[in-house]
Task: structure prediction
Amino acid sequence: MSSDKKAQEPVELTVEQAGQLFLQHTAGLVEYWLNESKTSDVKDKLSGLAFSILSTIDGSNVVIPGFKMIPNIAEEDNRNTGGTIWPDADIAGSLHERWSLEMEKPAYQRSLMVDAVKRFNQEIANFTKS
Result:
């Protein structure tokens, strides 16, 4: 380090500031993919945006750290939403790596989500009948 540059003291962020920085970073990603000229295909741009956001959450960004992503389900629901029991654990870390594999599948093959939606719709139907 040159003698004319002073080391900056670290700054501890508040929860509000950290959230604001994450939102600003995400807004920057939206602008980047909106203006990306290598593709004009909307699906490619949306997929690129999703990959970028997942990379940020997973911690593959040099600007901000990764984040824990833990399902947040009301305690009275006991992690059960529409017949699907979610883990009480961090699911982040490799989401961006798995993204392209998920996007390669035809939509009808995303069976876990299809089954979860079917169970959720059935739960709503049962609830409205009672």
Remarks:
- The first strand starts at residue 80 and ends at 81.
